[in-house]
Amino acid sequence: MRLALPLTLAALLLGGCASHKPEDFNGTWINQQAITAAVKGNNLRQALDANGPVFEWKLDVAQQRASYSNGFEGADGQLSTNDKQWVATFDGGATEQLSLNGDELQMVDPQGAKQTFVRANAPAAGNAQLGSSFEQALYQAYLGGDWKIIEGQGTGGTVRFSDTGSVTGLPGPDRFALCLAGDCATMGGSNDSLWLERNQQGAPFIIKRTGKQLEISQAVNRAQPDEMPQLAAGKRQWLLEQN
Predict the structure, then answer these.
(1) How far apart are CA 98 and CA 86, in angstroms?
(2) Phi, psi of 186 (to 5 degrees)
(3) Which of 146, 153, 158, 195 is most buried (CB neighbours < 10 A)?
(4) Which helix (H) or strand (E) is 45 found in, with range?
(5) Which domains occur in the chain, in start order?
(6) Residue 81, C-beta contacts closer than 8 angstroms, at least 6 positions apart
(7) Peptide bond between residue 22 and the one before it cis (omega within 30 degrees of 0)
(8) pLDDT by residue (tens digit) across 50-106?
């Protein structure tokens, strides 16, 4: 019963400007524009940078909770209404305005920059780390399907990257992760990078996706010992082609 008044108030505040019910905001929303740009382009980081910085929202109207992920870290805030808009407020006073435009969630930051999000078709499990739904959708779109090893150890074999981070068919590793943001991506400079591991031991690799081909090269550190690593492409380890 304690939730009845806030929900009723929210409905009254929004009633004059939209036909959406408050619960229509509930759920996980992902940045599909960033995923589409990544698949169409030749540089993953550039596509994400141009369509970021937020890649996923989780909203819970009843609990008045709002969380978002930028691909590296997340933030939890409070969801409320203000001047017929939903407002997510975070530590330090940062705010984001949220609204629905048809089936899309729109976010406008205090500087007026706008991003749009769509509801995740297959959201990650409830206990999954924030950002997992976007990551899974990106993995499926960017690396999904069967890849044939054209060059490198295991030539002729089939490689499959799952949307949950497992990989089969590559000799050695059984887990992978794309570097999307933060220090992991910064170390690659303008290059895209991929982490490959087995038994919790692994290493970064530089990747280049061109159409249906994916190059995976050894990562060479060009930084001094007392500097942050700066990874560049070394010897090509594998060349994969998507079937």
Answers:
(1) 5
(2) -60, -40
(3) 195
(4) helix 44-51
(5) 4-140 (2.40.128), 144-242 (no CATH)
(6) 9, 10, 13, 14, 87
(7) no
(8) 999 999 999 999 999 999 999 999 999 999 986 667 999 999 999 999 999 999 999
